[in-house]
């Protein structure tokens, strides 16, 4: 498992593509093969153009989303989905992916119905909201008149995945940090320390805030900060810093391009980028890949992987997974658990229905399915899936989806340390996973820390001290993911 050597300079692709309206000139001495469009983005709008956040933005945070099963075999509980959908608290994000509280607005105009079994209630959106309806037929045999529609608010894109997000971001005063960076770039033994101090500052955890810092630095110096750092650093310290300036969306596209350009497709990298993501993030990734590489991502992946594995990726790439606000309906959970058991016992050659169920469900639904399966059959669904799909290319992806849904912190910790194992050590994989956790925000990092304390009784910072070699790369990783939260008191 590797991300194809892990050095940015060994990438293939377009050499001189620039972001439109970029204030930054092309770099004649850029790293060979590194697509400049991955991190040369345009300037932020001036502070006077910033607006107040959209009031109908989000819903409860992911990491506190319980595995709820709606009772009464598919009937809607009184008041839950009648008439108008409730407005979520401002500043919080729907559950289902590791993302910190969202501050941005998104416009949702396309409406498609969600069909759910055995109910006769149709909720209507408020006239002043743009609600999306998502079609999710669980059982084709259920007559249409026995289904009902649920209006849901789609999960917003993560920070860095929607170009309109800077319009709703609070302006940040970067003057002191720009001055420190200017001083650091002039040389001296403390340059790397200053870089880590500035770039790991919590106020720049939002990718758009870091973009603002870089834009302001250019306004003062007429120099490209990312290119300066690339020239003055080396090794995986350089890789991590360059990735920070790429932004999470461009880093995803870059990682996909590397995974798909090698002779042997890097499935581990595909799983890292595509699984356990919101529909909005996936759409942004697909569109960005198309704009940079000119290829249809779904068609390219289909040509590179086995048919059974692409069957897992297909509903993900098409953006048809259940949105995080779609509830887990008892009748549907019961039906799908029965279906999974029937296919697995006795063993069935056709396992595609199981893949369909697990790849299309949201986090709450997956958690409910796993819990109901264990309660009904006294067996762990994760273990049965592992046995059923033994030797199949889609096995690792299915297990990752299940593990993340049932305990995201434990899943993230296991994948993080797996990249540093004695026989699986790969700093490219570790860097990607560490930065994904960093960009996911304080909630994801807190769950990571809690999982580490529960399993090993050690802080993430302590683990990083022992698992990474001494140097600037280790100091950066500790600053990014090892010191962003504290373990809960016992």
From TrEMBL:
Keywords tagged on the record: Annexin, Repeat
Keyword Repeat: yes
Family the UniProt entry places it in: Belongs to the annexin family.
A single cellular component GO annotation: cytoplasm
Species classification: Eukaryota, Fungi, Dikarya, Ascomycota, Pezizomycotina
Gene3D superfamilies, sorted: Annexin
Biased amino acid composition, Polar residues: 1-19
Molecular functions per Gene Ontology: calcium ion binding; calcium-dependent phospholipid binding; phosphatidylserine binding
Region (Disordered): 1-109
Compositional bias segments (type: Low complexity): 92-109
Name of the protein this chain belongs to: Annexin
The keyword Zinc appears for this protein: no
InterPro entries registered for this protein in UniProt: Annexin_repeat, Annexin_sf
Transmembrane portions of the chain: none
